[in-house]
UniProtKB/TrEMBL annotation:
Signal peptide: none annotated. It comes from Zarconia navalis LEGE 11467. It comes from the Bacteria. This is Transposase. One of its GO terms (biological process) is DNA transposition. InterPro entries: DAHL (IPR045812), Transposase_17 (IPR002686), Transposase_17_sf (IPR036515). Pfam families: DAHL, Y1_Tnp. Keywords: Coiled coil, Membrane, Transmembrane, Transmembrane helix. Residues 364-391 form a coiled coil.
């Protein structure tokens, strides 16, 4: 109020600048609230979440490839190279963090990714050393059995049978201990290998065995290579299999928390936007009524001036009437009639002033009541919307339950009438049943329609066709055609992931026991596969 009154003492230019500045501030705040009220991109969240899952699978596959390369005698390093290349390609994609992640979580994710891919760089260097040392170890391990077969096949022309038998027995014992040493951690084997190596060398020196008679130097050389290289390979294997910090699971939890916070932040800004525009509306009405009242003030001043003039005229007349009591009755009647006339005019003006005052008092009370009504509307708006939505959901749910059984029979008959020349029916028809965890009754008719659209889009992306969709509060039944080359297990996991994200966005504030999308669906599902060309069915359950 004081601010509005002080505007009168400002010049016209200053008032114009003040009005323009206020309008700019109001417009800026309104644009900010509207911008923050936009929905969070669920497609961006799903895409980034899938990249994290892919990185987690690559890390697990990396450990499997390392173990295979370490303990298989004949193995290729191509899977190891491809795995590291895929992890490196995901680095650039994971750096593109969605916009809905707040500042603190964004910094945490960026720091974690930097540490993770720095660890990946170290693993790339370790893998190169691992390949070179492991190749040297495997080369010696493959050579010793070959050397044994060569010794068995050749004749001992330059050696006596006793010396040849002693060398052969020592060689076989050495090879046996070396092979055990490759897959064992027994320290006693190291001592045995060194003893047999020394024993073989002593026999060779004592009997002056020639190279062409028995390859003693090669045997000792390869034995030393195995003895020295195996600990290095084991150490490199341990370093490569050590988990990187932070783990991908921690990053996934931080990202899911950011998504939940973004959804909650959008809801808060929508409520604040509603309050902000209600305040602007109430303030606009108040200023308009205030301006109208100010326009009526000159008329109030004129009425007050007329009352003062009449009072000034009446005062001398009243005094004169008391002094001139001797005036005759005719003059007295004229005087009283004049007094009555002025009195009526005075009463009329006073009544007019009273009515005007009561009018503006009524207006002020109406303004106060309007402000109170707007505040009460703000408090009851959310409750009213929730009641309306609940009634609509209950009505549509009853209709859906009545139509469910008839629609199921229609779908089964429709499956038999699909034309065999269709491109999709040259593969198979799958019927998938998904059950909520602990048989929670989560699905409602609006959610059925939303899930039907989500499943249809997901199947179209995988070159599949949705045939039918049925749902109940705790069960979803989906029929679709798929090409022969599709992997149904991965397709089912993708469908569960997409549906979990959709339901988690809807029910995360209503059910306290749902902490993440993985808490919605049961791990058990029922899958029926019908081959359209061979007229057979396969049933899979997990």
């Amino acid at each position: 109020m004081r601010t509005i009154k002080s505007l009168k003492f400002l010049s016209s230019i200053e008032r114009q600048w003040l009005i323009i500045s206020s309008a700019i501030v109001i417009l800026t705040i309104s644009i900010f609230f509207i911008g923050q009220s936009f929905s969070v991109s669920r497609a961006g969240y799903q895409q980034y979440y899938d990249r994290m899952l892919e990185l987690k699978e690559l890390e697990a596959d990396f450990d499997r490839v390392i173990l295979t390369s370490r303990y298989e005698l004949f193995s290729s390093y191509d899977p190891l190279v491809k795995n590291l290349a895929k992890q490196r390609s995901l680095e650039q994609e994971l750096k593109k963090i969605p916009r809905f992640v707040n500042f603190n979580n964004r910094k945490t994710i960026e720091k974690s990714l930097a540490e993770k891919f720095e660890s990946l760089k170290e693993k790339e260097e370790l893998s190169e050393r691992f390949k070179s040392r492991n190749a040297l170890l495997k080369n010696s391990l493959r050579y010793l059995p070959l050397l044994t077969s060569q010794v068995n096949s050749q004749d001992s022309k330059g050696l006596t049978p006793e010396i040849f038998s002693s060398l052969k027995a020592t060689l076989e014992g050495l090879i046996r201990n070396l092979l055990l040493y490759n897959i064992s951690v027994d320290r006693e084997l190291t001592t045995n290998i060194k003893t047999l190596t020394t024993q073989l060398l002593d026999i060779d020196i004592k009997n002056k065995v020639k190279k062409e008679d028995f390859p003693t130097e090669k045997v000792i050389s390869h034995a030393n290579i195995i003895l020295n290289t195996k600990p290095q390979v084991e150490n490199l294997t341990t370093q490569l299999l050590s988990p990187s910090e932070p783990s991908t699971e921690d990053l996934k939890k931080i990202f899911q928390t950011s998504y939940s916070q973004a959804l909650q932040r959008v809801k808060i800004y929508r409520i604040l936007s509603f309050i902000w525009f209600l305040v602007i509306l109430a303030l606009s009405n108040y200023l308009w009524l205030k301006r109208s009242r100010n326009r009526q003030e000159p008329s109030f001043a004129r009425i007050k001036q007329q009352i003062e003039q009449i009072s000034a005229e009446l005062s001398p007349l009243i005094e004169k009437s008391h002094r001139s009591s001797h005036i005759n009755s005719v003059s007295e009647n004229c005087l009283f009639s004049r007094l009555e006339t002025h009195k009526k005019e005075l009463d009329k003006l006073a009544h007019q002033v009273q009515r005007t005052s009561e009018y503006w008092q009524t207006k002020e009370s109406q303004i106060q009541q309007q402000i109170q009504d707007l505040q009460s509307q703000l408090e009851t708006a959310k409750q009213h919307i929730e009641k309306t939505v609940t009634k609509a959901k209950e009505t549509k749910l009853n209709q859906q339950i009545l139509q469910l059984s008839a629609t199921l029979e229609h779908v089964r008959s429709q499956k038999q009438t699909i034309e065999p020349e269709s491109e999709l029916t040259e593969g198979s028809i799958a019927h998938l049943s998904l059950l909520t965890k602990q048989r929670r009754q989560l699905m409602t008719p609006p959610m059925w329609e939303r899930l039907e659209t989500v499943f249809g889009n997901a199947l179209n992306e995988r070159k599949c066709q949705q045939l039918d969709f049925q749902s109940s509060p705790e069960l979803i039944q989906l029929s679709f055609c798929h090409p022969p080359q599709i992997q149904l297990s991965r397709l089912v996991l993708h469908l569960k992931s997409v549906a979990s994200t959709c339901l988690y966005e809807e029910f995360q504030d209503q059910l306290q026991d749902i902490k993440e999308p993985g808490d919605i669906w049961s791990e058990t599902y029922f899958l029926t596969i019908s081959d359209a060309s061979a007229n057979r069915e396969e049933v899979q359950a997990q």
